[in-house]
Amino acid sequence: MQTHEMTSTDALEILQTIYGFDGFRGQQQEIVDTIIRGEDALVLMPTGGGKSLCYQIPSLARPGTGIIVSPLIALMQDQVDALRALNLNAAFINSSMNAQDVARTEQALLDGQIDMLYVAPERLLMSGMLSLLDRCEIALFAIDEAHCVSQWGHDFRKEYMGLSLLSERYPTVPRIALTATADERTRKEIASNLQLTTAASFVSSFDRPNIRYAIGEPVNPRDAMLHFLDTHHEGEAGIVYCLSRKKVEQTAEWLNKQGRTALPYHAGLPAEERQHNQTRFLREDGLIVVATIAFGMGIDKPDVRFVVHLNLPKSVEAYYQETGRAGRDGQPSNAWMAYGLQDVINLRSMMAQSDADEQHKRLENHKLETMLGLAELTTCRRQSLLSYFGDTLVEPCGNCDNCLYPPHTWDATEAARKALSCVYRTGQRFGVTYVVDVLMGKVSERVTRFGHDRQSTFGIGKEYSANEWRNLFRQLIARGLLAVDVEGHGSVLLTESARPVLKGEQTLHLRELVVGEGKKSRSVTR
Ligand code: ADP
Ligand code: ZN
């Protein structure tokens, strides 16, 4: 494949003869041409957009080996297998290999027999590897999952920082950085940390029109999920994300009892079991993987029909990336999420307890707020999601829960005032459950001990159920009228924004509350 003067006709020929595709998609052609000319590129393309060809074709079209930096060893094997199936000389070097295999691959590299070499960043940056590369002809460096170089992004990996060395050490080798998620700020950080500020930048639309977004707060998320799966995804493949390993295992077990084939996946399982479950999911039809976020990066399964979240993701980027694993084949797919008050409390306390520095914690908190904002939204979800990535959608999409079934809002001012004053009267020292007990006039040992049964707000909220109150509190927290003091065991506090509502200076319209137990929440069941 090694000719020196390459044109885009050659690129098209490679696409057609080797890959068997008719033509390029979206911006692929321009990107490929840029790299073939020896220039750098920064590529932002949603999952499924076709990023791999953007570096694979130039690797073949240019003389020498394409070096692909990828963060996940588990995925290298899949990529390399896929390339070998096309009769290409692809290889990887990583820590799972024995010395003999490494030596053999290195020799093949020196002999110029490898079209594409996958390598993890920490491995690439080892002095032995670099001095080996000094003696090879290199077609390009591709830096996959480039958002890992950004501290603002959601998946920072410090090894990625070292990759800036490539531009100094190999100034004539073109570099291409690729990612599926990057807001404006992450984009800037990628460009500056990888010395790509002068690179051509290719930003594809982030819209995934075939994915229908729905987010709700059902009383019983598991049952609501099953109802959703039965209605829309009988026998189809999908991913169910949970926050904890324990919940992953429980949910998988439960789904199996309901007659679904569900496989667990999380970092605590033995490596063989994880690999086995992943392989089954890829090869067999209609399986469900129940997983923590450890599952998914780089999974290339085109017919994932649904992605369910049983917990709130910790950022909009994470939500977008995880839901983006649905419908890579362009067919209608669902992104369905159920969340609750406990998610907000759990995520906040995880953040408070992490040993990250203050600045980092503030940042994480800000991201969680933004995610909550998306969850509580009453207008088009897609418009909001895309605007987060600097993309605009002029009209509401017509393919999200809020567009299809506009949420009913109600004047919650009076109820909110009751809730807020009860928080105030009980001293801002208690969690939601306790405050709801007081509102509903429930006598308990604790309530009597603190004398709250003799308090003016005791029993003023009997018109709503405990679930309705919890829903209201969640919305008040999401809107920032109440703050959760995670160091104080989840006690809720009034914020400045609560004042105008308490004083009757501001009205508050909220999403309809869940009406009683059993009746499933509106937006997630359809
Ligand atoms: P990404 O890495 O951006 O998530 P991939 O590179 O894995 O996406 O491509 C997604 C799918 O689209 C793959 O199955 C790939 O073979 C296919 N694909 C990519 N480009 C084209 C094209 N020009 N024509 C047809 N199929 C394509
Ligand atoms: Zn919409």
UniProtKB/TrEMBL annotation:
The EC class name is: isomerase
Question: Cofactors per UniProt?
Answer: Zn(2+); Mg(2+)
The protein's UniProt keywords, in alphabetical order, are: ATP-binding, DNA damage, DNA recombination, DNA repair, DNA-binding, Helicase, Hydrolase, Isomerase, Metal-binding, Nucleotide-binding, Zinc
Q: Name one GO biological process term.
A: DNA recombination
Which superkingdom does the taxonomy of this entry point to?
A: Bacteria
Q: Which residues form the Helicase ATP-binding domain?
A: 32-200
Q: Which residues form the Helicase C-terminal domain?
A: 221-374
Q: Which InterPro entries match?
A: DEAD/DEAH_box_helicase_dom, DNA_helicase_ATP-dep_RecQ, DNA_helicase_ATP-dep_RecQ_bac, Helicase_ATP-bd, Helicase_C-like, HRDC-like_sf, HRDC_dom, HRDC_dom_sf
User: Per the record, what is one GO cellular component?
Assistant: bacterial nucleoid
Entry's EC annotation = 5.6.2.4
- Which GO molecular function, any one, fits this protein according to its record? hydrolase activity
Q: Does the keyword Ligase apply?
A: no
Swiss-Prot/TrEMBL catalytic activity: Couples ATP hydrolysis with the unwinding of duplex DNA by translocating in the 3'-5' direction
Family, according to the entry, reads as follows: Belongs to the helicase family. RecQ subfamily.
Q: Which PANTHER family match?
A: ATP-DEPENDENT DNA HELICASE Q1, DNA HELICASE RECQ FAMILY MEMBER
Listed name of the protein: DNA helicase RecQ
Question: Which species is the source of this protein?
Answer: Granulosicoccus antarcticus IMCC3135
